[in-house]
């Protein structure tokens, strides 16, 4: 499946680690969390982007956070 110029393998895609595979892209983003996906979306108009994840898309910490990600907005906020 492709989203803009971002290539996704189908959910549940099984990769045989003994089989050689070659993929070509302009940018390889390692990590499919919020930062990696944000970067991939910003770079997609500029070329072919691939996102490499260590597991299924639905197993990352960002997915489980469900909007509960904290951010520092003011000097009085703490990390």
How would you sum up this structure, described in words?
By secondary structure, this protein is α/β, with parallel strands linked by helices. It is built from two helices and four strands. The chain has helices spanning 34-43, 61-65, and strands at 2-3, 6-7, 27-30, 49-52. A four-stranded mixed β-sheet has the order 1-2-4-3, covered by helices on one side. A hairpin with a 2-residue loop joins strand 1 and strand 2. The longest helix has 10 residues, at 34-43. The radius of gyration is 15 Å and the shape is extended. The model has no long low-confidence stretch (mean pLDDT 75).
Give the secondary structure arrangement, pairings included:
Elements: E1 2-3, E2 6-7, E3 27-30, H1 34-43, E4 49-52, H2 61-65
Parallel strand pairs: 2-4, 3-4
Antiparallel strand pairs: 1-2
């Amino acid at each position: 499946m492709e989203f803009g110029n971002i290539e996704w393998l189908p959910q549940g895609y099984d990769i045989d680690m003994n089989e050689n595979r070659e993929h070509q892209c302009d940018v390889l983003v390692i990590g499919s969390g919020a930062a990696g996906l944000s970067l991939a979306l910003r770079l997609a108009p500029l070329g072919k982007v691939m996102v490499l994840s260590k597991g299924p898309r639905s197993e990352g910490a960002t997915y489980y956070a469900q909007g509960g990600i904290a951010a520092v907005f003011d000097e009085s906020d703490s990390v």
